[in-house]
Amino acid sequence: MVTTRALQCSAALVAAGLVLTACGSSSDSGSGAPDGNTSFEGRGPITYVAGKDASGVVQKVIDSWNKQHPKEKVTFIQLPTDADAQRQQMIQNAETKSDAYTVLSLDVVWTSEFAAHQWIAKLPEKQFPLSKMLKPVVETAKYRGGLYAAPSSSDGGLLYYRSDLLKKAGISKPPTTWEQMTADCAKIKKLPEAKDMSCYAGQLQKYEGLTVNFSEAVNSASGVVTDAGGKPDVDTPAAKKGLDFLVDSVKDGTIPKEAITYQEEDSRQAFQSGKLIFLRNWPYVYSLAGKSKVAGKYAVAPLPGLNGPGSSSLGGHNLALSSYAKNKATALDFMKFYTSEQSTETFLKEASAAPPYASQYTDPSLVKQYPYLPVLKESVERAVPRPRVVQYGDVTAAIQQEAYAALNGDKSSAQALKDLQASLQKLTGQ
Ligand code: GLC
Question: Pick from 152, 193, 224, 400: most CB atoms within 10 A?
Fold first, then answer.
């Protein structure tokens, strides 16, 4: 629930044409410093709050911190896997000024909203090795020039494909266009072992994943949701071609009907149990699928697009410090530890999480384990950020509503895009 005050606050920001002033007073921030700058004081137990970890590696990394810091132990609080549910719980915690959450694993799209409301503390930039990290990743952690989160993992969409079946059907390389992908499926489905499989799925349930998949489809057809200046420009023929790819694929069965109920984990399970030939998902799937029935039978490629390779939405998570937390000195040390090259290498090796550090994408031993790392680096560097706005929650809700209406057949693609353009204009004041 967003409070009236927060709504008034974001309305004021919209009216100001997104020329943002920090919302809330310094007495609200709980920063402990009269100038609004955070004083990182207090040592003792803290919590780390993130979406459910399917890999089990997060707890392992926390255990190694806890061993070395018996008086500053970190408790891992796992939230639902659904990004929107995580955001809601984190906002609720901030609005009640609770100290239950210390370090937050913030989705890259929430930085502006959390920083503008002073729910998270500004961080001492010099204490994080930002120059070693990929530039677009660092940008996601900034708000009005200040650092509000420490990059922990990046994310770029990848096309997972059944390399065994492509080979068997005589297809020598993965598709780079949507048309090639459906043509490949038609060939593969002639194989007896593939006749009941579906061609493709991503994440089309009505939640943040739909915003990602919709934006990727639009961008991969050379359209935009908002232009470089943040102005909505989604009611265009190019954007329609992107949305039509999703809508038509659901209609003609290229995407199975049940995929409009899929989040990341449902679609991963479908691919792992052999139901899908192609899957759009994040890098974390690579490692888990390697322990499943399709181990050794899949590979990854860049996302396909309308006329050639598509573009991914920029995903990922950054660690932020709740303004209302106690033991901020411990929290800062833990954030440095968790986002260090050593920890991110562990997350990469054991959970195929995309690291924020540039060198880890070209390190020969890591590339040996994950041959697609150079492709992923390119995908992250070229990835399209979702709108960077304080009222991101409203913006993503509008995208989800219109994209879902089109997928569900409640509206034509043209009408959905027209309505989305109007909503986004209203929300961003542009
Ligand atoms: C992944 C991405 C995140 C995105 C979410 C959508 O967790 O890292 O940026 O918002 O998926 O479901």
Answer: 152
Residue 48 has pLDDT above 60, yes or no: yes
pLDDT in tens, 296-307: 999 999 999 999
Any atom of ligand 1 within 6 Å of the Cβ of 208: yes
Q: How many helices (H) and strands (E) does the chain have?
A: 18, 11
Above 60 in pLDDT, residue 194? yes
- What mean pLDDT comes out for the span 412-417? 98
Please report the pLDDT score of residue 430 as a whole number.
Answer: 86
- For residue 154, which amino acid is it? S
Cα maximum dimension of the chain: 70
pLDDT at 428 over 70: yes
Q: What is the pLDDT of residue 39?
A: 86
Q: Which stretches does DSSP call E strand in 181-339?
A: 198-201, 276-281, 299-301, 314-321
Of ligand 1's listed atoms, the one at least distance from the Cα of 212 is 6
Distance 25 CA to ligand 1 centre (A): 31
pLDDT score at 120: 98
The residue whose C-alpha atom lies closest to atom 9 belonging to ligand 1 is: 315
Q: How far is the CA of 302 from the centre of ligand 1 (A)?
A: 17
Has residue 63 got a pLDDT over 80? yes
Would you say 140 and 151 are in contact if contact means Cβ atoms under 8 Å apart? Answer: yes
Q: Which domains does the chain have, with CATH numbers?
A: 4-155+316-371 (3.40.190.10), 158-313+391-428 (3.40.190.10)
In the predicted structure, residue 64 carries a pLDDT above the cut 80: yes
- Report d(CA 210, CA 173) in Å as an integer: 28
**Which residues lie across from 109 on neighbouring strands?**
none
Residues 6+ apart with CB under 8 A from 77: 47, 48, 49, 50, 100, 101
Ligand 1 atom showing the smallest separation from residue 107 Cα: 9
Report which DSSP code applies to 256.
-
* C-beta 108 within 6 A of ligand 1: yes
Could you give the CA distance from residue 174 to residue 304 in angstroms, rounded to a whole number?
Answer: 9
